[in-house]
Amino acid sequence: MAMIAPSRRLRRTPFSEGVEAAGVKGYTVYNHMLLPTMFASVVEDYRHLKTAVQVWDVACERQVEVRGPDSARLVQMLTPRDLRGMLPGQCYYMPVVDETGGMLNDPVLVKLAEDRWWVSLADSDLLHWIKGIAYGYRLDVLVDEPDVSPLAVQGPQADELMARVFGDSVRAVRFFRFGWFRFQGRDMLVARSGYSKQGGFEIYVEGGDIGMPLWNALFEAGRDLDVRAGCPNLIERIEGGLLSYGNDMDRSNTPHECGLGKFCNTATAIGCVGRDALLRVAQEGPVRQVRAIEIEADSLPPCDRHWRLLDGDRIVGRVSSAAVSPDFGCGVAIGMVRMTHWEAGTALRVETPDGMRLPARVRENFWV
Amino acid sequence: MAMIAPSRRLRRTPFSEGVEAAGVKGYTVYNHMLLPTMFASVVEDYRHLKTAVQVWDVACERQVEVRGPDSARLVQMLTPRDLRGMLPGQCYYMPVVDETGGMLNDPVLVKLAEDRWWVSLADSDLLHWIKGIAYGYRLDVLVDEPDVSPLAVQGPQADELMARVFGDSVRAVRFFRFGWFRFQGRDMLVARSGYSKQGGFEIYVEGGDIGMPLWNALFEAGRDLDVRAGCPNLIERIEGGLLSYGNDMDRSNTPHECGLGKFCNTATAIGCVGRDALLRVAQEGPVRQVRAIEIEADSLPPCDRHWRLLDGDRIVGRVSSAAVSPDFGCGVAIGMVRMTHWEAGTALRVETPDGMRLPARVRENFWV
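^ inputs. structure came back:
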């Protein structure tokens, strides 16, 4: 494995100082920003995440702020999910598609007010798409990237740690809702959300200057909870079936292929770009779809490219994320499988880049 | 320094196999793709680049293909550079700006035909912007990312090596022009261009399958020329004043601040998005601008964030790229300086993140 070469283009975050002090060992790049991938080891981080509480620098989940009289029209243009019932204080996971129904991003939409939204991004410059649409349609909106850097608190002890820093009322925040909480005289948006299945919160930290004070306060308050620096964990997120844009899906996939059909209200999401294409898909259904794939393996190479899924010598799909799970004692993977082979229980083989063909099986559900 | 964590999201290239076999030691991520940053060492790579010939995997310079009846209108909307005189066979460096005149990318535009163009990208998803504009204006165009991966051949022996693989006629290709040359039965677009001042070519390789055969043919043919795997070299590109999008400029900068005013034909580039804003800038001139900065230093930390440029305790600019130059025996840097202090010869101090304040000087020109 090679080193990552530092440069300003790979942006540091308001929490980088804390991440470095905690001994980060691996990085990836996400929205032109550094995202930690490992502290102790992926397995040790995984065990700790499932039993204690971690603080994650996910500043790379950049926001696009959409504000102004036409903002509601613009955000509805971005997604086939019907946003009419959405209230301020809610977060919606939403597929964003282009005119052909191809996935451009799968952000979380945060509704701050009737005319103010944050689009909390996965890894692509969706800002460019939103600005392009706003410009082309001459919409009366402001579209920009604000100085907002999410910090996640994840794990079974997340409620306890957050209550110590923000007060007990933070426990009352419901899933995919948010509230405003005070820290050192600043109001912070705190949502119950995050890229793990262990539960927790995301704090949308406005203003880089308050980043390290908050980081330090969380570690101070959680010393007896064994709080540690963590990051989205490859094994845990695959077990939980959390898709990763750029890994498990890209512009060549429709939301339906990604198993996101339930977020497509194509009949009622009036004005959505790509609606015509998706109406067709909604009628006919996709011919391939995301599935949980179990692999018989004690060890696996990093999944840095598609691995072919085979029935004999016939290619019937591909794996896009994979790791060995200590808790389930097998390889856990996310794949895209053709409809001829996507039934739960179907036996396949997966071919890794070194030419190994390992037994694999389509599962009904992910592991959690 | 930390490791880079492999995943499919950080895309491999058609040349990755060759890059790994050549012993790549460092990577950055560019347009969601791996870009090597170091083989032997940055200094050794630098010396070799200036004396011999290198083959660079710059597949990360992704193309946006724009095709169809409205394609000329669309590409002119992207840039304040007047494209009316551009002919098929030419390459134009062009600033791309948003409606406020802020830089979105600084690609090379390749004109394949009157109705077919490649926009060869710096590091941002300009595809989203171009698709958004095309959709908003209902233009009759196709906009997509084709399977085209540039491979650069750079260094004083580039002509000799290229002639051995593509024939002597490749020597006749002029700067920022291209021609079509045959390799193993395939036509390849070869331009005289590249991200160094040592001269050379970029081969726009269509179809990933022919990547490694071409890579191997170049190494085979250049054995006695000491051909090596290389990459854009930090020291050499700063010496040469080659700006890097995301490092030396971003959306907050106008082309004029970046010293790209000569590519802004704001009066005649009719239809350019951001023209109103840039007309204003063109009249008044920028209040800060890119400058070559010489630093008195034998060693420098990696420039992974802005370094402040100071006159006493007053901030008068910032450095965005820096390295120590063996050939010039000083720190070489690219900075943005306020007009009060941008005259050649102005003495300043540069503050590195460890708190050191080093003597620095504004130069008239870059080093080559």
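Chain B has a mean pLDDT of 97. Chain B has three domains: 16-61+147-238, 63-144, 288-368.
thumbs up if we can close this ticket
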